[in-house]
Design a protein that fits this description.
By secondary structure, the protein is α/β, with parallel strands linked by helices. The chain is built from 10 helices and 5 strands, in the order H-E-H-E-H-E-H-H-H-E-H-H-H-E-H. It binds adenosine monophosphate and magnesium ion. Magnesium ion binds next to loops.
Length: about 280
């Protein structure tokens, strides 16, 4: 069991509930503080210790999920550029058996992908039984970058919120647990992270001049994210708005939500083969 030291004490961790978007509510990102670290009061050293326990527990739960082999877990990560998607994948899943976790990254669509509907490339990458799949970007790009840059007419992208809800409801009804995280950074924090990329020779490879052009559309992205969060947080596929200016806090929140969700599944190791008590190995 996790020894969590969040304010109000968890697990189970109602402190994380504050970041879950209630289905049907209207989201204004200005009301969500990206610097918030209020659910954790134990200090940096305690946070590190807790993060270690969280990843260990995640490792055990992943093995149980695999052993049970009849449920699937889909984790969706979305953020502005530099928001920390790669950092979450690296830190939260550190220690989890790489055989049990798949990362699916969704880039600019290829020509064959563009020749199909937008879910065509997504559906084959959802998790199968016993698997955890992390979407690094996702079908939500088709109502984010696509909306901001008018890559398809509004009459087309406007219908996608309902389509995405129906798609995710299907996955959930068929046995997939879906958890969606928006890693929320401020515009000033993005500036600091972009500057750090430019200045550090070991990070320069990550710098994409196109990110500066995207940054100039910040407000349009905020509007597009608010529409996503307001229209697609469902009981079967909730969004969490994760304060992400502080990386350690971001990782703790995501890790804790995942551990809680997996513990809530009530998973059991499958029964042993009959007669195992009398097995003799010579
Ligand atoms: P990165 O995640 O930094 O490697 O960048 C991937 C890029 O692909 C981002 O600029 C995304 O906005 C872009 N991208 C992902 N999905 C789509 C999509 N459906 N349509 C257009 N661009 C996309
Ligand atoms: Mg990028």
């Amino acid at each position: 069991m996790l020894r969590a030291e969040f304010a109000g004490a968890c697990l189970p961790c109602p402190a994380m509930e504050r970041y879950r978007i209630t289905p049907g509510s209207t989201v204004h990102l200005a009301d969500h503080d990206p610097d918030d670290t209020s659910a954790f009061t134990g200090g940096k050293a305690a946070a590190k210790e807790l993060a270690k326990e969280t990843t260990q527990r995640l490792e055990e739960l992943q093995e149980l999920l695999f052993a049970e082999g009849r449920r699937r877990v889909l984790v969706v990560l979305q953020a502005m550029d530099t928001g920390g998607k790669d950092g979450v994948i690296r830190h939260v899943f550190e220690g989890v058996n790489p055989a049990g976790v798949t990362v699916a990254s969704f880039k600019k669509p290829t020509a064959p992908e563009l020749a199909h509907d937008y879910l065509w490339r997504v559906h084959p990458r959802v998790p199968g039984n016993g698997e955890i799949t992390i979407f690094n970007r996702s079908h939500y790009e088709d109502v984010l970058v696509v909306r901001v840059h008018s890559l398809v007419p509004e009459a087309v992208w406007a219908k996608r919120y309902d389509q995405i809800n129906a798609f995710e409801e299907t996955l959930a009804a068929e046995g997939t647990t879906i958890l969606k995280f928006y890693l929320h950074i401020s515009k000033a924090e993005q500036a600091a992270r972009l500057r750090a990329r430019v200045a550090d020779p070991t990070k320069q490879w990550k710098f994409n001049p196109a990110d500066l052009a995207e940054r100039s559309h910040w407000d349009a992205y905020v509007t597009a994210y608010e529409a996503v969060l307001s229209q697609t947080s469902a009981p079967w596929a909730p969004w969490y708005v994760v304060p992400a200016n502080a990386k350690w806090y971001r990782d703790l929140v995501v890790g804790t939500v995942l551990v809680e969700a997996l513990e809530g599944l009530g998973m059991q190791y499958p029964p042993p083969p009959p007669g195992i008590d009398s097995v003799v190995i010579e």
